[in-house]
Amino acid sequence: MEKPSFTIPKVRLNSAAGALVMPVIGLGTSADPLDEVVMKAAVIEGLRLGYRQFDTASKYGSEVPLGEAIDEALGLGIVRSREELFVTSKLWCSDSHADRVVPALKESLRKLGLEYLDLYLVHWPISCKPGPDVHHVDEEDLMPMDFESVWGAMEECQRLGLTKSIGVSNFTCKKLGTILIFATIPPSVNQVEMNPVWQQKKGRTGGPTWSWRTRPSIQEIAEARGKSVAQVCLRWIYEQGATAVVKSFNKGRMRENLGIFDWELSEDELERIGRIPQKRMLPKEKFVSPTGPYKSLDELWDGEF
Ligand SMILES: NC(=O)c1ccc[n+]([C@@H]2O[C@H](COP(=O)([O-])OP(=O)(O)OC[C@H]3O[C@@H](n4cnc5c(N)ncnc54)[C@H](OP(=O)(O)O)[C@@H]3O)[C@@H](O)[C@H]2O)c1
């Protein structure tokens, strides 16, 4: 059994039955185009380094190579058992219809070669007409999501034991509030964009997060501390009490992104980061359409942009 280079701290998820803990840093698997061979090798390397949380989605096309990498790592003894891992996947908009949710999760599990997920997320708060090409969403296919029935089916996924926990992604406070009206299992995570340039000052919920971008103050802090810009951003996210999903398929950068647990940002540095002008980096205009449920970015993000 190989010893990982890093032990990543964990947080407890609040709605899961039993003691479900999530490592505070996970490896993202979204890339365009996705080179499955590179990704698979990166996941195996990531497992050697100590990554135990992996973020995929039916939309990313990365479920098969992620599953193969996990299987290989188990065979090589890099990981002792499936239970050591935290695997997240997501329900795509074309499957965000009550009768399609359980079959979509079963299909994700088939591709991953796993019996259960640790976390299953509603990828976006919008549905679209089911079609053969999941990677393409036509404007005229956008339709409102029936939050109550889709969330009911997500709860069914957890009850069936197909996933240990359920959550949402790209939901605003308002849309989360709608789910909470009828949820019998509240979302344990809201995976959203979060970085020093989009700090989620309103919507912070402690869910996982992705992305980091730079501004001069981050660059200056990084230089003064002898850290990389990525490390300053990730440390900032960690200190906010959030967890992060970071994509790198490069061994050096995967290692670098874990080097955030043995130092802290000062009050002054936190204050400077807090003053960075805010701008959502991924507004997702493609979900806004005159014929769809969201006619403006304001409606999609309920003013949070
Ligand atoms: N729920 C959602 O809707 C949603 C949306 C977007 C993303 N995500 C998740 O979040 C993950 C990350 O997404 P993202 O948008 O933050 O990242 P991204 O834009 O996909 O990738 C970040 C880029 O930064 C590079 N990088 C990583 N570490 C670095 C470092 N230390 N120094 C310099 N460059 C570095 C990576 O390149 P190398 O590989 O060459 O290092 C990568 O190309 C995704 O893979 C996905 O799992 C979820």
Automatic annotation (TrEMBL):
Species per Swiss-Prot/TrEMBL record: Trapa natans
GO molecular function per UniProt: oxidoreductase activity
Q: By what name is this protein known?
A: NADP-dependent oxidoreductase domain-containing protein
Q: Which residues cross the membrane?
A: none
Q: List the catalytic residues.
A: Y60
Annotated signal sequence range: none
Question: SUPFAM superfamilies, per this entry?
Answer: NAD(P)-linked oxidoreductase (SSF51430)
Q: Where is the NADP-dependent oxidoreductase domain?
A: 31-202, 215-274
Q: Which residues bind substrate?
A: H123
List, alphabetically, the Pfam families matched: Aldo_ket_red
Q: Which PROSITE patterns match?
A: ALDOKETO_REDUCTASE_2 (PS00062), ALDOKETO_REDUCTASE_3 (PS00063)
Q: Where is this site: Lowers pKa of active site Tyr?
A: K90
Superkingdom of the organism of origin: Eukaryota
